[in-house]
Amino acid sequence: MLNLKKMHHIAIICSDYERSKKFYTEILGFAILQEVYREERDSYKADLALNGQYLIELFSFPAPPVRPTRPEARGLRHIAFEVTDIEAALHQLQTNGIPVEPLRLDEYTGKKFTFFFDPDGLPVELYEQ
């Protein structure tokens, strides 16, 4: 068995780098730790942190293929973030023009959660603790 310690990061390829960078930094509150342009790939890469923890690599590539279907596609289903006040978070998203699905209750924990989508349709979950 591998001796894994923790999740290191999630890599996301976006269709419009500036739009996605703005979404993850200005809407979700990630900080840019490092941003580079890789000329040989015609690709930008930003390392993004939340509350000081490095979590996301945001990539651009020329003409990446679209996600084939909604969360049930093979591969990454969604990314999820913990919040303490889900109603306040929903209000903030809606104030920024981001549609949010209705609140749901986790049938096993009784906790509230919901989904919204990043600029490329990647499902993002908010889960109230």
TrEMBL record:
Pfam families: Glyoxalase
Transmembrane portions of the chain: none
GO molecular function, one term: metal ion binding
Sorted UniProt keywords: Metal-binding
InterPro entries membership: Fosfomycin_Res_Enzymes, Glyas_Bleomycin-R_OHBP_Dase, Glyas_Fos-R_dOase_dom, VOC_core, YwkD-like_dom
Lineage of the species this protein comes from: Bacteria, Pseudomonadati, Bacteroidota, Chitinophagia, Chitinophagales
Full protein name: Glyoxylase I family protein
Domain VOC as annotated: residue spans: 6-129
